[in-house]
Amino acid sequence: MNHFINILKYAKPYKSYAIGHIISNVFFALFGTLSFVALKPMLDVIFKKDSVDPCSGEAIAQVVPVEPVYTGLMEIDNYTKDLLAYNMHQFTGGDDSKALIFVVGLIVVMFLLKNIFGYLANYFLVFLRNGVIRDIRNKVYKKTIELPLSYLSEQRKGDILSRVTSDVLDLQYSFLSVLELIVREPLTIIFTITIMLYISPQLTLFIFVFIPIMGFIISKIGKSLKRKSDRVQKEQGVFLSTLEETLTGLRIIKGFNAEDKFNERFQESTTRFYHFSNKLLNRQNLASPSSEFLGICMIAVILWYGGNLVLGGDTTLEGSTFLVYMGLSYNILTPAKAISRALYNIKRGGAAAERIQEIIDTPNPLKDKADAIEKTSFDSEIEFKNVSFKYKDEYVLKDFSLTIPKGKMIAFVGQSGSGKSTIANLITRFYDVNKGEILIDGIDIRELTTSSLRNKLGIVTQDAILFNDSIKNNLKLGNDNINATEDDVIEALKVANAWEFVKDLKGGIDFNIGDSGVNLSGGQKQRLSIARAVLKNPPIMILDEATSALDTESERVVQAALENMMKNRTSIAIAHRLSTIQNADEIVVLKKGEIVEQGQHKDLIAKNGTYKKLVEMQSLE
């Protein structure tokens, strides 16, 4: 129930629709009840018999109704009956046929008003429910992209996709469908029971004995729904993850003849999903028949007990009144079934709400401080001061210290796992250091707003990450690039040595590169990544093995583009191919998270140490 209340908080911006929905439901419930009450005058007209004097046997003349006078709320029932009788007599002049037309017309009006307000209630609910779903989905997505990479690396992508899509959709048909019932069904029951109590308190109180029994049986059936629903949603995340991995790695799957293996894994997951869903839905399907059967049992008891009262000559319960009472009793069944379904839905939706809330409530350790500094310039240097960092158990960087002056190119080299890429992850604040600090112009980057820090950074990674859009929109990705002109885009492409192939593409900079740039070669994609960084024009450039995935010819072209880009900028280059960083102002050699050598290329070669061994190993490849 707590999750249900949390979800309802998202309805606050749509309170005008909620108020309209509630008011419409109040009138829906009212006219729905009155439509049954209006049956009594019709039954009285149909089954009407002239009153006869029991002594003389002569017919008693009918009393002509007079217009009643309202005397207070306590007499509202008599006033209403007398007013209806007076208006009916005025309309019919005592003619039974006209009286029947009047009563039938009254019933039609009651049902018309009921359905008008039912439509209005659903009309307002559409905006309320869809608005809440949109806001929840947006909130989950926003929180997902705000969370650090460390959180996302521990989650299955398919599970996150499942939460943003199917779990949110599940809320729409579980929790939010209950919004329709919160006012309508309880009020229908309250109005109906009120009229039933007025007609026959004795019979109505007898019915109340069965209501707790019905509630107990329904709650027993629905007890395990939340657990079963949670199992279904988790399994959906598993097969969505398998699907995502299949689409991403299809080339490798085919190359290693692993189609059968992945197909088996996918089918095992969908089979589990099939069994879990069957158990959940079959349990859920018990709601309607069980509540209806219990309701019919209640009707049967009313027929037996109430019939005995009528046959026994109870003067307070006429035949027509008893028929109306039976109609009202049946009128309780529909909202009662709806409420029982709502209780099932709340239990089923609880698992989806819990999974969604888990993402929303996840703390973000990289969130900006309340008084974070908005730094607008880079003036002097970057300093790593006694930095230690670990992803899990072992430290990847150990007591690392280094100063990078403005305008210099610093290259980091070393074997895999030596901590090179970690430096890029830390300066961009994808992760926070465990010990020490990273300073820009003497200010700890944790004191800066994340946006102002990353505005000063341009990133070119080993994997050219591009999006299914035009070349122009891929380059204009960052906020600072949105207003860039077409001339600015073309100039950035020229600096990156990319214009030479872009100008020959159909549409030029408006050419759609396809999913992950599938319509381009590896070298072309990498040059577009460089052009994107060039267009941003940041003072600090980070190159994370930007050429390691390229062939020799593509590397030469991309390396020329990188050199163009790095002119007059502070550059941090993480290199696998040492030939690309020989002109760096300083080369830092890392081993197991520590600096073992540093200096320029020729000086390090002269030392005849680790760097020279790395160069010689690559020259033999």
UniProtKB/TrEMBL annotation:
<feature type="domain" description="ABC transmembrane type-1">
    <location>
        <begin position="22"/>
        <end position="348"/>
    </location>
</feature>
<dbReference type="InterPro" id="IPR003593">
    <property type="entry name" value="AAA+_ATPase"/>
</dbReference>
<dbReference type="InterPro" id="IPR039421">
    <property type="entry name" value="Type_1_exporter"/>
</dbReference>
<dbReference type="GO" id="GO:0005524">
    <property type="term" value="F:ATP binding"/>
</dbReference>
<dbReference type="InterPro" id="IPR003439">
    <property type="entry name" value="ABC_transporter-like_ATP-bd"/>
</dbReference>
<dbReference type="InterPro" id="IPR017871">
    <property type="entry name" value="ABC_transporter-like_CS"/>
</dbReference>
<dbReference type="InterPro" id="IPR036640">
    <property type="entry name" value="ABC1_TM_sf"/>
</dbReference>
<keyword id="KW-1133">Transmembrane helix</keyword>
<feature type="transmembrane region" description="Helical">
    <location>
        <begin position="189"/>
        <end position="218"/>
    </location>
</feature>
<feature type="domain" description="ABC transporter">
    <location>
        <begin position="382"/>
        <end position="617"/>
    </location>
</feature>
<feature type="transmembrane region" description="Helical">
    <location>
        <begin position="18"/>
        <end position="39"/>
    </location>
</feature>
<protein>
    <submittedName>
        <fullName>ABC transporter ATP-binding protein/permease</fullName>
    </submittedName>
</protein>
<feature type="transmembrane region" description="Helical">
    <location>
        <begin position="99"/>
        <end position="121"/>
    </location>
</feature>
<dbReference type="Pfam" id="PF00005">
    <property type="entry name" value="ABC_tran"/>
</dbReference>
<keyword id="KW-0812">Transmembrane</keyword>
<dbReference type="InterPro" id="IPR011527">
    <property type="entry name" value="ABC1_TM_dom"/>
</dbReference>
<keyword id="KW-0547">Nucleotide-binding</keyword>
<dbReference type="InterPro" id="IPR027417">
    <property type="entry name" value="P-loop_NTPase"/>
</dbReference>
<keyword id="KW-0067">ATP-binding</keyword>
<dbReference type="Pfam" id="PF00664">
    <property type="entry name" value="ABC_membrane"/>
</dbReference>
<keyword id="KW-0472">Membrane</keyword>
